[in-house]
């Protein structure tokens, strides 16, 4: 569906967060339609500039959908909601801001869309892609959670749109980027997706509508990425195999040629080089000079809340890895530092498997202590008790981030120094608005020590 297809139609905007408000603003400012219905699952006030539109909240949403010809759903509104399914069955068109914008950009000659998805590593990957392409002189817009909302980019002129796609956004797209990359797929169970199988399929739906001549790149080392892309073999290309770009112990190679070394980069974490294998596969496909791109990579500034060094006090370094919302992210982070380590982990339960995390702690003698907290704290602690048998390991359960930071600091001071790694392994929702707010809280605590 294109934006022009909404002209004059009675359009329900479901979800009045940032994306919903942007959709309303665009539709009204560009005079696409003034027949707008506002829907929100919880009670809320009308957004600014929406006084003329009727607002339906909570239980009134289902009945209000009967009035709509088109529904623009926000990412927080699951495609598995019964109300949406019934609306589709009645012939109501259901779309999203992401789908509308993607179709607009794909229709523009000379503009290519690069889409990146996966369980972890999306933000860093799109940031590096956008950075290097800009350094080569292309007009590039970065969209997604860390860039500008896609709808804000519509009035610009670009060679490339580099967009981070969540599973929520990819799940019902009617079009696909010409170029895509998947970082990985890890176990995640959320109510939104109604299970892990749907989560994986919703991620991979990003490339379900690719055309002949389009391309997407998949991490050969990630079994679930391999498995769930089997349905779309035509445009698939691999990375992290020896015939192309692959990472080994923090070094990026193209076949046998060394391209980049994590030790020479500002970017931290050996696991990030796995993602760089995908990024450089995309760059090579686009025809850029790979060796020149590798030199540019040395000047790339890592994103905040991703293995971000906050401070060093009394020989103790504090690392903010609040973006870590899965055990696999913490496992990668553990292997990125030398010396004594204390981990702080816990957040909202996402029904994830913490046994590999605990096994990594058991096999990494540098990890002297883990402090757990929040909803997943008891779950993580229970698995650690079952798995970790090292006599030099200490487990502490606490009820606040302040107490966790203080305990970690005291432990490492007593050992003569080391690294406090705040790698939550779990989402932030229920305790913070997002991982950024969580990371800022950690930074504030560290600076107050």
Concise summary:
The chain has 449 residues and is of the alpha/beta class. Helix content is 32%, strand content 21%. The longest helix has 15 residues, at 271-285.
Please supply descriptive tags for the structure shown above.
six-stranded mixed sheet; Protein-Tyrosine Phosphatase, Chain A; six-stranded parallel sheet; alpha/beta; globular; 3 domains; single chain; UDP-N-acetylmuramoyl-L-alanine:D-glutamate ligase; 449 residues; Rossmann fold
Characterise the protein shown here:
46% of the residues are buried. The chain starts with 10 loop residues before the first strand and ends with a helix. The longest helix is centred in the middle third of the chain and has 15 residues. It has three domains: 84 residues, Rossmann fold (3-Layer(aba) Sandwich); 198 residues, Mur-like, catalytic domain (UDP-N-acetylmuramoyl-L-alanine:D-glutamate ligase), CATH 3.40.1190; 140 residues, Protein-Tyrosine Phosphatase, Chain A, CATH 3.90.190.20. The protein is built from 15 helices and 20 strands. It is 32% helix and 21% strand. It is globular, with a radius of gyration of 23 Å. By secondary structure, it is of the alpha/beta class. α3 links the parallel β4 and β5.
Relevant CATH superfamily of the largest domain: Mur-like, catalytic domain
CATH topology of the largest domain: UDP-N-acetylmuramoyl-L-alanine:D-glutamate ligase
User: Widest sheet: strand order?
Assistant: 7-8-6-9-10-11
SS element count, helices: 15
Indicate the radius of gyration in whole angstroms. Answer: 23 Å
Percent of sequence in beta strands: 15-25%
Number of domains: 3
The CATH architecture name of the largest domain reads 3-Layer(aba) Sandwich
Low-confidence segments = none
> What class would the helix/strand composition place it in?
alpha/beta
Q: What does the main sheet amount to?
A: 6 strands, parallel
Distance between the termini: 53 Å
CATH class of the largest domain: Alpha Beta
Count of distinct strands: 20
Helix content: 25-40%
């Amino acid at each position: 569906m294109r934006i022009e297809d909404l002209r004059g139609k009675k359009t329900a905007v479901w979800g009045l967060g940032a994306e919903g408000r942007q959709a309303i603003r665009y539709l009204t400012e560009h005079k696409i339609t003034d027949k707008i219905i506002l829907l929100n699952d919880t009670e809320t006030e009308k957004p600014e500039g929406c006084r003329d539109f009727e607002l339906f909240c909570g239980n009134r949403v289902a009945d209000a959908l009967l009035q709509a010809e088109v529904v623009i759903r926000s990412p927080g509104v699951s495609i598995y909601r019964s109300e949406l399914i019934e609306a589709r069955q009645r012939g109501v068109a259901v779309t999203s801001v992401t789908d509308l914008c993607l179709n607009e950009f794909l229709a523009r000659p000379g503009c290519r869309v690069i889409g990146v998805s996966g369980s972890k590593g999306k933000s860093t990957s799109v940031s590096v892609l956008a950075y290097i392409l800009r350094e080569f002189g292309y007009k590039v817009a970065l969209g997604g959670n860390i860039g500008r909302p896609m709808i804000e980019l519509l009035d610009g002129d670009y060679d490339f749109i580099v967009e981070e796609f969540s599973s929520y956004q990819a799940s019902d797209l009617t079009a696909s980027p010409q170029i895509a990359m998947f970082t990985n797929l890890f176990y995640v169970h959320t109510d939104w997706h109604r299970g892990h199988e749907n989560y994986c399929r919703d991620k991979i739906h990003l490339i379900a509508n690719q055309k002949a001549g389009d391309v997407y790149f998949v991490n050969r080392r990630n079994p679930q990425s391999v498995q769930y892309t089997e349905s779309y073999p035509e445009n698939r290309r691999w990375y992290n195999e020896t015939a192309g770009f692959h990472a080994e112990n923090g070094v990026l190679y193209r076949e046998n040629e060394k391209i980049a070394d994590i030790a020479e980069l500002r970017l931290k974490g050996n696991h990030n080089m796995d993602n760089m294998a995908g990024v450089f596969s995309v760059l090579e496909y686009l025809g850029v000079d790979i060796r020149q791109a590798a030199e540019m990579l040395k000047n790339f500034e890592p994103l905040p809340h991703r293995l971000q060094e906050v401070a060093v006090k009394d020989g103790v370094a504090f690392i903010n890895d609040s973006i870590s919302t899965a055990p696999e992210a913490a496992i990668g982070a553990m292997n990125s530092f030398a010396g004594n380590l204390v981990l702080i982990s816990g957040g909202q339960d996402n029904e994830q498997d913490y046994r590999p995390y605990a096994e990594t702690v058991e096999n990494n003698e540098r990890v002297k202590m883990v402090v757990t907290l929040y909803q997943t704290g008891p779950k993580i602690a229970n698995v650690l008790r079952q798995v970790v048998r090292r006599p030099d390991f200490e487990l502490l359960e606490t009820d606040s981030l302040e107490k966790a930071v203080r305990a970690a600091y005291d432990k490492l001071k007593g050992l003569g120094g080391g690294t406090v790694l705040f790698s939550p392994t779990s989402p932030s929702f229920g305790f913070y608005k997002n991982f950024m707010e969580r990371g800022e809280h950690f930074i504030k605590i560290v600076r107050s020590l």
